[in-house]
């Protein structure tokens, strides 16, 4: 059973979320503050649903600490309508996705189920594949869910790993952002290209020698991106 931490300080919204998730057999851990969420967060949590605007420790800070402690944790941010910077900041801190308030039970479940599928696919790949993907300085160890550059491990979130794996499987090919969304986030993903761009920016910070002058993930203007693992 998938275990979800729900961080929301407004009791009515938290109750709305809990009722809908319990109805679909998710195990729920609830928190009304960032401090409480950090106390309850542990390795048994599969997904954290984090409100951004909170008294005390913000959802952003919880996201940052959670990502540092639990790299494989799925994280979805709850952001206010029209506050574009909230979406981007959450993604840059390691969130996998975001939902804009107000949202319907259908959208909430769709986002959570999509993330659950991605996490489960990762587990299945870990169980069934033991081959490597090699591209220039980079090696993906599929059975261990690791990315190596020059033999040194680079720590990635689940989404970042899936994105790099997709790029390496399509090395030297220009990939449209629609293709990236469909293959990494899923065909039914309701969102925009910002989630692709922010995740690529995050990955560049980790893999590039000079992130301001990237040579491994190139931008194809007006189209998408190209992985050039050789970097030459």
What do you see in this structure?
The protein is of the alpha/beta class and 232 residues long. The protein has eight helices and twelve strands. Helix content is 43%, strand content 23%. A five-stranded parallel sheet has the order 2-1-3-4-5, with helices on both faces. Strands 6-7-8-9 form a four-stranded antiparallel sheet, covered by helices on one side. A three-stranded antiparallel sheet has the order 10-12-11. The model has no long low-confidence stretch (mean pLDDT 87).
With strands numbered from the N-terminus, the spatial order across the biggest sheet is 2-1-3-4-5
Portion in strands: 15-25%
The outline comes out as: globular
Mean pLDDT: 87
Q: What is Rg?
A: 18 Å
Main sheet: strands, sense, barrel: 5 strands, parallel
Measured distance between first and last alpha carbons: 46 Å
Low-confidence stretches: none
Q: SS-based structural class?
A: alpha/beta
String of helices and strands: EHEHEHEHEHEEEEHEHHEE
Work out the helicity level: 40-55%
Work out the number of β strands. 12
Number of helices: 8
What is the element layout, followed by pairings?
Blueprint: E1 3-7, H1 11-23, E2 27-31, H2 34-40, E3 47-51, H3 59-69, E4 74-80, H4 84-92, E5 97-101, H5 105-128, E6 132-135, E7 138-141, E8 146-149, E9 152-154, H6 158-169, E10 174-176, H7 177-185, H8 194-207, E11 217-220, E12 224-227
Parallel strand pairs: 1-2, 1-3, 3-4, 4-5
Antiparallel strand pairs: 6-7, 7-8, 8-9, 10-12, 11-12
Helix pairs in contact: 2-3, 6-7, 6-8
Brief sketch in words of this structure:
With 232 residues, the chain is α/β, with parallel strands linked by helices. 43% of the residues lie in helices and 23% in strands. The protein has a five-stranded parallel β-sheet, with helices on both faces. A four-stranded antiparallel β-sheet has the order 6-7-8-9, with helices on one face. Strands 10-12-11 form a three-stranded antiparallel β-sheet.
